[in-house]
Structures are given as structure tokens and as C-alpha cells.
Amino acid sequence: MTTEQNTVATAPARVVDARNVLCPTPIVRLTAAIRELPVGASLRLIATDPGSDADVRAWAVESGHELVEAGRTGGEYHFVVRRTH
Questions:
Q1: Which residues, in sequence order, are CB contacts of 1 under 8 Å at separation 6+?
Q2: What are the structural domain ranges in the chain?
Q3: pTM for the full predicted model
Q4: Which candidate in 13, 21, 23, 37 is catalytic?
Q5: Which of 16, 29, 40, 45 is the most buried (most CB within 10 A)?
């Protein structure tokens, strides 16, 4: 499998935009969106709330879903979460 095919195969199935909203809205949107995905699929959450980093990490532990990626670009926090159950 080439790198390009691998990237396409693992690309998030959905992007959840939680920019310009505060806690708990990013987690509420994340929770609702992950329920709509099949097990094994992933989504990207984009948030601007500085508390999102800690909130999403705690949510992943509590919910049992996999936090695949977490990072910050400028004032935006980007997360990729995979549904595990």
C-alpha cells in the first residue's frame, strides 16, 4: 500500500467544528458526532476553547474512545478521535 492510499484509508470520516464556542459545547458536539460513526471510524474535532485540550483527553479516557492525535495550530486545537465501541 502506498503512503497516499494509507492516508486516504485513515482520513477522518467527519470534521466537527467547535470553534468559537466554550465548554461544554465542544465535548457535547464530539459525543453526538462519535455516536453517528461506525466502530473503527474516526473524526476530527477543531476547537478554540483553551480548555478543550484537557477536556478531550479526559473525555477519551472516560468514554473509552481512542485519542489518535492532538495538537495546536495557532489558536485552534485539533483532535482526531477513533470510535472503539
A1: 9
A2: 3-82
A3: 0.87
A4: 23
A5: 45
